[in-house]
Design goal:
Ten copies of one chain form a homodecamer.
Chain A: E1 2-10, H1 18-37, E2 41-47, E3 52-59, H2 62-70, E4 78-87
Antiparallel strand pairs in A: 1-3, 1-4, 2-3
């Protein structure tokens, strides 16, 4: 398995239809929680004061990560930066 | 408790005495593992291909975080950026 | 308690309804002054020549800070950067 | 009086004589505390995890500020950025 | 008195009503020339090839500067950066 | 397998012993060519006019990539940025 | 022949007519695959998590490259950065 | 005479009327060629893969350059950066 | 005549011989004041809190400016950025 | 033939032996003038106020350009950025 650090900055357009907005955010939450339960989206934190999150994904490879991220309901409104992670020699895990 | 995302970029000077270098790195590892065992340094990952890590700290407040980071044996050779984290509404934890 | 330095850059869309604009700015002012009276928003300065402020918050933790900032009536129109602060060894306070 | 937001990033060269280093840091502390007592250096915070501070100065004008900053014993080892501040219309002070 | 270096980058929206545009630019010119005559806006240069200017203001303090800049008719369409200036020891003025 | 785009900027210190320099560069070449023959370092190009390369690695995961990059004889003198790649829907390969 | 590294970041406007959008993307794919079959667009990778690609072109010169890139159906919606590549002395190809 | 290096990045709004767009581009071409024939716009190159050019102007002074650039029919849709050039001691011209 | 805005950031190496340092700074002052008296270096301000200045030069062309700047005794220790200025239509001078 | 825009920023170390410094600069000049006479280094300008130049090369391909740039006697002390150029549709040449 491969670990990736992912930062997502969300910028939903003001003129998005309110129902579509609410529905997209609800789908995003369900999608995220499903991946969390599968053990693929292993951490999800809010950056304090920003509509942004920092996440850790544990997936087979960059292809799977790319598929998961493109599947995000909010993907069209996100700026995403991916950083690959390796095990650290001082980690006790 | 308060969560912080910490990125550390390490740049040890070439002319550091080799024994001091080795001893400092060994102390850094012990220091880090002690904080991990105390549950204060909750995650520690290597950024692939860089002498850098991404860490998550769970501490009382920025004062405690600041004390812990200044105590790092490699602190004089690090660039550190701290980002405060909040619980995310979609996290299942 | 935990101190945070917060910079807010405001960019209200030109096409926002003027009444909504005025009402949002009024609510922002009331919201800010309420937090100031509670001792959570301890300093608030204008950056000269910019629709931006620099603020100091004194809150329990990043979670509370995040809740307060998301509650700002102008939050959707702001870029916010948070920097955690610690006590300085030379401060006489 | 005029308010200025000042960020100072300190970078003391490794090869500075240890006695000179210690003596300079001690003078810096005394200098800073003297200005704090005079009410000119009104706030001084450490940026968590960095050898940096954020300060607020209350001085007559940029000339006085410039003189005070050039007088810092650590001035030769600092990067300094000054931002002028104005009273904010929502501040209750 | 206090000197400030001010850079203003102007970006008037394309869809601004042409009459409002012309009237705003005319008011900007009158406002600027009035401040020049008062000796507060002491220099005003165009950056060659850009809808930008570099200006020097001589005002009482950052509060007055902030009031003057917010009063610019084009203020809503400008990005402004202020740099405080001090007398230079080699200046013959 | 996982693909990664790697940019390496090389900056060998001027005061490195010439023999050590030559020997390190020779080992770097052998190390690189060995990985190329193993099919792990699948592309290697020079950025025109810079002591930099752009490379494509095909490895098991970020851990293997990290091990390979830390093993580069010139690693201490390189700035490295890794970008994970996925298959593109329009690629005919 | 001349090699160029090309990064393309795609940003299709939200208000583009859906049919035009779909048709443009289809033409982009055909155009790309035609150039791949001609051996001019020799590599095409997706940057994981972004609507971006990294490509390698093998063309006669910058003029031909410029013509090919301006011919991309998505060109009006792309930010493109071109880096010229040279053969690397350690490459075994 | 004075030489200036000018980079122009063009970004024509999508919603510009097609006739106005075509007419503006045609006027830009005529304007540019007229200045080229006068010997004031001495070089004009396309940056490969971008709607940008790099140009060299030979004019009396920054005032004339500024007038010529503001006169560009595409000026409202351009970002322009000007760099003044001097004769190089190794140039054989 | 041609106006140029020049920013100079000074960074004198710590290990410069103290006598050479003092002598260079003294020559810099004399050189600057001579150009000021000639009317070529028309303004010289200190950026508050930095070893930097902002200057306005009034010279024949970029060649003369380049010669004057290369002649600065502190030139080897300066980062210099030049911005050409034009007369502003709202200036009353 | 292929055109490339090349910016070179020179930073010769202070501690380079003065004779080696002078000899390297002399070789650089000869090397440059030889390439100019061959028609490969077609333009060479000084950026006013900086130890930098902007050059235009006319070479067979990026490989030749890379060879020529690595052959510069000052290459070890330069930061170089290459931008490929294409013919511009409005150029009259």
């Amino acid at each position: 398995m491969a670990l990736f650090h992912v930062r997502m900055d969300v910028n939903i357009p003001r003129d998005l239809d309110p129902d579509e907005r609410a529905e997209t955010i609800a789908r995003e939450k369900a999608y995220s929680q499903d991946l969390q339960r599968q053990g693929k989206w292993v951490h999800l934190w809010r950056i304090a004061g920003q509509y942004s999150n920092i996440s850790i994904f544990d997936v087979a490879d960059p292809d799977e990560l790319n598929d998961l991220l493109w599947g995000l309901p909010l993907f069209p409104y996100m700026d995403i930066v991916v950083t690959p992670l390796a095990k650290h020699g001082s980690s006790i895990k």
